[in-house]
Fold this protein.
Amino acid sequence: MLEARGAVKGLHAYRPPLAGRQGLRLDFNESTIGCSPRVVARLRSLDAETLARYPEREPVEGVAADSLGLDAAEVLLTNGVDEAIHLLCSTYLDLGDEAIIVAPTFAMYAIFAQAEGACLVQVLTDENFAFPIGELLSRINARTRLIAVANPNNPTGVVVPSEVLLQVARAAPQAALLVDEAYFEFYGETLLTSRARPANLFVARTFSKAYGLAGLRIGILAGDARQMSMVRRVASPYSVNAVALAALPEALRDQEFVNRYVAEVKGGRALLEQELRSLGLRYWPSHANFVLTRVGSAHADFVQALRARGILVRDRNSDPGCEGCVRLTVGAEEHTRTLISALRDVVEELELRREVRA
């Protein structure tokens, strides 16, 4: 009888709650206003012949590389950051190798690493989700072949200084260090253009958040040109579809649209954090387009009460160290104000002030 590999049978499947997402979607950190009108116009101009051809990725990689100040040989467009993670695991992990992640974090790092038969080394964050640099460095050994760090981190919004990440890369020259900058636009600091960027450092970016292209599934993996040539060997030449490739140049050209939205998110993030303080709810200062807050044992009721008001948020109670926590996406100002109004009602309804202070 045909059976899956043992590594696959032992995986915990990641099944995000995508069904029935009606209302104001503040659960998956998507843009709440969508993409640039220039992207929409480009999509409407596509013809049947474009869709009938296999997609050609390289010309658009050149455009993307120029926008980042990199050489095209250092850049690979991917089917979202998920594919970038998968490709790094396929390129560098063998059976029995070790992959280090700092938890809580994005679930796909662990899934793709374990699918290759690697041993997962999970290092828990320090108090207040601070990056556990000492513990992480102590876990590096000759078998360490991949280290994945989201910066800013999801679901906490906490960041790691560039010099600390470079310290990790130097401590493990035999390992690929992935710095996932999916929320870069809301933070503003990057290792992508660092002159000190070592050959084992890879940076991933996505167009799902600030650019509003989550439905097109397109991202970037960048790194040392020699290492990227190895990654390309395991990448499908057609993994990024023609529609996404047609849209990306227009999205990159409309930086005014992106900057305006990012400014709204940053302003809304400050408003939301101020409101959480006023409501007596614990939260962690965020550098992304979301805020993690602790509501306690009523977390499921909290999520449901907001859903009843037409607002979707994400329960993160099952993440390590996130007991009783809920993640709130920050979008356009009007959507943030809608969320704040609903939060006031829900906190009163569930008497959360009383529980949190107790």
Observations:
- The domain at 6-30+256-357 is CATH 3.90.1150.10 (Aspartate Aminotransferase, domain 1).
